[in-house]
UniProtKB/TrEMBL annotation, chain A:
<dbReference type="InterPro" id="IPR050128">
    <property type="entry name" value="Sulfate_adenylyltrnsfr_sub2"/>
</dbReference>
<feature type="region of interest" description="Disordered">
    <location>
        <begin position="276"/>
        <end position="300"/>
    </location>
</feature>
<dbReference type="Pfam" id="PF01507">
    <property type="entry name" value="PAPS_reduct"/>
</dbReference>
<feature type="compositionally biased region" description="Basic and acidic residues">
    <location>
        <begin position="291"/>
        <end position="300"/>
    </location>
</feature>
<dbReference type="GO" id="GO:0005524">
    <property type="term" value="F:ATP binding"/>
</dbReference>
<keyword id="KW-0067">ATP-binding</keyword>
<keyword id="KW-0808">Transferase</keyword>
<dbReference type="InterPro" id="IPR002500">
    <property type="entry name" value="PAPS_reduct_dom"/>
</dbReference>
<dbReference type="InterPro" id="IPR011784">
    <property type="entry name" value="SO4_adenylTrfase_ssu"/>
</dbReference>
<comment type="similarity">
    <text>Belongs to the PAPS reductase family. CysD subfamily.</text>
</comment>
<dbReference type="GO" id="GO:0000103">
    <property type="term" value="P:sulfate assimilation"/>
</dbReference>
<dbReference type="InterPro" id="IPR014729">
    <property type="entry name" value="Rossmann-like_a/b/a_fold"/>
</dbReference>
<feature type="domain" description="Phosphoadenosine phosphosulphate reductase">
    <location>
        <begin position="27"/>
        <end position="253"/>
    </location>
</feature>
<keyword id="KW-0548">Nucleotidyltransferase</keyword>
<dbReference type="GO" id="GO:0004781">
    <property type="term" value="F:sulfate adenylyltransferase (ATP) activity"/>
</dbReference>
<protein>
    <recommendedName>
        <fullName>Sulfate adenylyltransferase subunit 2</fullName>
        <ecNumber>2.7.7.4</ecNumber>
    </recommendedName>
</protein>
<keyword id="KW-0547">Nucleotide-binding</keyword>
Length: 300, 453
């Protein structure tokens, strides 16, 4: 008997989730509807069945999500019989009288943080499990598995706790919370290989399909839901595309692709010379340290 | 410490200097395994540059990531592409040109999958190096060819040894700045081998290189024809890390299962279901095994082993499973289930090697929370037996207190008995941490030795 690396990664992730269950009183699993958080749900099933999850699924909805992802989210929660809490950025904007970003490439992605911090306060969550991976981005490559945040949700990269072996220290003061990343050590390809091996269902938009898009700054952006308002110089096209990541419509670009099966998607990802976030995320390309700054502000 | 390690270190120097290393590819071809390694050494010795070079020359950098570091390098004076930026991802790291915290990078070649941990050299951030090193099987210790072995080289080597990292690569870097001189390299090897005698490493390998120019990182150097050993990547791809080679004997791999969480659905149809969830940290459990629960000492038999409602006859480390026992035993998080025929050390007075990681002093009488496996208990400091001098590796007795980054042997008294295996025998079950009760921060890394005499 010998474990391959996917077995090892799976076991590590299950172990981390159970540490959350054992060390915290009010944890939550942040669920976005994307492949990484769907993988987290699958890992939670492995960690806690036949018992119930010791945490609800929490979705921070920007109001700019793909309908396919939202339907999938509701289906999944119902299918596994676990509690789903949704909090809306829309409501935060209204209640807090926030100024919504305007202009050509406006996105609500940044405002998510406010809604997340409010939800943490509302439910007194002491730990939030998320699907961030260290291979995604250079600031994430530096973060601990148990990432302690102060009462403002803020990450201080210069004051991270030592974290040795598989001993996680989740002791915190009241008001602080911990962000926990069970798939820290997985790469994009590991996630896809695991999805294939475990036959995990995904929203249809991860596979090649025809849709209307507009070309902006060289990126293919979906016109779905009217989130992105076409401007006179935007070119409208219909293309066969898939989404490599599924996030907020306003900042997630599509890739032209014919890959309509898992095998084909994995082949494409293996061959690509562009990183996941580089290909799809507009929000990281704003500045050199965009992710680090967002994390300091309480983001994932 | 060990005679054998000593001879091997000396042998390794000879073998790189005189003859090509005989390497075997057969083992790694059977299956793709995973090597976790860390860079270590003094500030500015070129650790991050080396990792960048390794990724660059093995074509593991994606086009947009390369563009991003090219763009970031442009704002620098010389305009050369700075490969250290691949891992130095924080704003302050880029501003100061140093590494502050460990960065993790993932890559693979046709032979192996790798998790790279790039550590900071700066003494202030030693705790981050310790964090990264704890799970590694190999450390690449960099030495600047111009300066030779420095204090931080010794400190990191000692930490690697205390953490039980079996393989050390001494990368003598910046050979371009010493005219690729064989004499310089040999002298550093001889010097380090002296040091290695006092350490626990199973194997030390010496490679002369220039991370900046890419000599002997992925591609063989043409400027150092006198060196006939492997390049760094060749070595990483072939170094023997197969734990099985050492035999999965009960003595080396005793069966250990720290209980993390109890699964009790308490529904009508699963009314009596009670499963103990955890990860097998060491060894193998089979259905029917006689087990003992620690610290209570109660015994029972394994009724079933389960993963997500699928039943197994046996399970090995590091699998995360659910165990069911034949009888009702009082078990909760923090308990350790072991096979009854291989008992660990259980004691309230423990000898341990300590790596102190806090700015507050560590003193006799101080109290902390000790975490080992899933168990937590309060403890107090009985004694500082000796402190290790990071330069000479000598033991200094009569030490009053320890300061940030000090290494020492200590005796702790715990409120509850703790169960563990000596760390140098079993890395998976002999490590523990100290937590400060007021700040909640992890302040100490403990390599448990045994019951204090
Ligand atoms: N000439 C020469 N310079 C090198 C070589 N390797 C690294 N350097 C330079 O040495 C300096 C420090 O390199 P880094 O890679 O940042 O050093 P480091 O060991 O990661 O430093 P810390 O992480 O802060 O401890 C940089 O200016 C590098 O360009 C080499 O082989 N030759
Ligand atoms: Mg560095």
């Amino acid at each position: 008997m010998k474990l391959d690396y996917l077995d090892q990664l799976e076991s590590e992730a299950i172990h981390i989730m159970r540490e959350v269950a054992g060390q915290f009183e009010r944890p939550a699993l942040l669920f976005s509807g994307g492949k990484d958080s769907i993988t987290l749900v699958h890992l939670a099933l492995k960690a806690f069945r036949p018992g119930k999850f010791p945490f609800p699924l929490v979705h921070i909805d920007t109001g700019h999500n793909f309908q396919e992802a939202l339907d999938f989210r509701d289906d999944l929660a119902e299918r596994i019989g676990e509690k789903l809490i949704v909090r809306y950025v829309e409501d935060t904007i209204r209640e807090k009288k926030l100024k919504e970003p305007t202009g050509r490439n406006a996105t609500r992605n940044g405002l998510q943080t406010f809604t997340l911090l409010d939800a943490i306060e509302e439910f007194e969550f002491d730990a939030c499990i998320g699907g961030a991976r260290r291979d995604e981005e250079k600031a994430r490559a530096k973060e601990r598995v148990f990432s302690v945040r102060d009462e403002f949700g803020s990450w201080d990269p210069k004051r991270q706790r030592p974290e040795l072996w598989n001993l996680y220290n989740g002791r915190i003061h009241k008001g602080e919370n911990v962000r926990v990343f069970p798939i820290s050590n997985w790469t994009e390809l590991d996630v896809w290989n695991y999805i294939r091996r475990e036959k995990i269902a995904l929203p249809s938009i991860y596979f090649a399909h025809e849709r209307e898009l507009l070309i902006r700054d060289g990126k293919l952006m979906a016109t779905a839901g009217g989130v992105i308002k076409p401007e006179p110089d935007d070119q409208l096209v219909t293309r066969r595309v898939r989404f490599r990541t599924v996030g907020d419509i306003s900042c997630t670009a599509a890739s032209e692709s014919q890959a309509d099966t898992l095998d084909a998607v994995i082949d494409e990802i293996q061959a690509t010379r562009i990183s996941e976030r580089g290909e799809t995320r507009m929000d990281d390309q704003l500045s050199e340290a965009a992710m680090e700054d967002r994390k300091k502000g309480g983001y994932f | 410490m060990s005679e054998r390690a000593n001879d091997r270190a000396a042998g390794a120097v000879k073998s790189v200097l005189r003859q090509p290393l005989i390497r075997s590819f057969t083992l790694s071809l059977i299956k793709m395994d995973l090597l976790r390694f860390i860079t270590a050494g003094s500030v500015d010795d070129g650790k991050s540059t080396l990792i960048g070079r390794l990724l660059y020359d093995s074509k593991s950098i994606l086009a947009d990531q390369l563009e991003a570091i090219e763009r970031a390098s442009k704002s620098r004076d010389d305009g050369e592409i700075d490969l250290a930026l691949l891992t130095d991802g924080l704003r302050s790291e880029r501003e100061q040109g140093i590494t502050i915290d460990v960065a993790y990078r993932y890559f693979q070649t046709p032979k192996r999958k790798f998790i790279i941990v790039d550590a900071p050299g700066h003494i202030q951030y030693t705790r981050n190096m310790v964090t990264g090193a704890s799970n590694c099987q190999l450390a690449v210790v960099l030495v600047d060819a111009r300066h030779g072995v420095a204090e931080q080289t010794r400190r990191h080597s000692l930490i690697a040894s205390l953490l039980g990292i079996p393989h050390i690569v001494v990368a003598v870097n910046k050979m371009d700045l010493v005219d690729y001189s064989q004499d310089v390299f040999s002298n550093i090897c001889i010097h380090y081998a002296e040091l290695a005698k006092k350490l626990n490493a199973h194997q030390v390998t010496y490679i002369p290189m220039s991370a900046l120019n890419g000599d002997n990182v992925v591609d063989r150097s043409t400027t150092m024809p006198w060196y006939e050993g492997p390049t760094l990547l060749e070595h990483l791809e072939t170094v023997g890390i197969d734990d099985d080679a050492e035999g999965k004997t009960e003595e080396r791999h005793p069966a250990r299962f720290p209980v993390q969480y109890v699964i009790r659905p308490q529904t009508a149809e699963l009314h009596d279901y009670r499963g103990y969830a955890g990860k097998i940290t060491s060894g193998l459990f089979r259905k029917g095994d006689a087990i003992t629960v620690l610290p209570s000492g109660e015994t029972s038999t394994i009724n079933a082993i389960e993963i997500a409602e699928e039943h197994l006859d046996e399970a090995i480390s590091p699998m995360s499973v659910v165990l069911h026992l034949a009888t009702d035993v009082d078990i909760s998080r923090g308990d350790l289930i072991v096979r009854s025929n291989s008992q660990p050390v259980s004691t309230q007075t423990v000898d341990a090697m300590l790596c102190w990681m806090d700015t507050k002093e560590f003193k006799v009488g101080n109290k902390y929370v000790l975490q080992v496996g899933t168990a937590r208990t309060r403890c107090s400091v009985r004694e500082i037996t000796y402190q290790l001098n990071v330069n000479t590796y000598e033991e200094t007795e009569d030490v009053e207190s320890l300061k940030l980054n000090d290494l020492a042997k200590v005796v702790l008294r715990t409120a509850q008995p703790i169960s563990f295996d000596p760390y140098q025998k079993n890395r998976a079950t002999g490590g523990a941490i100290l937590i400060d009760e007021t700040s909640n921060v992890t302040v100490g890394a403990l390599m448990l030795v045994g019951e204090a005499g």
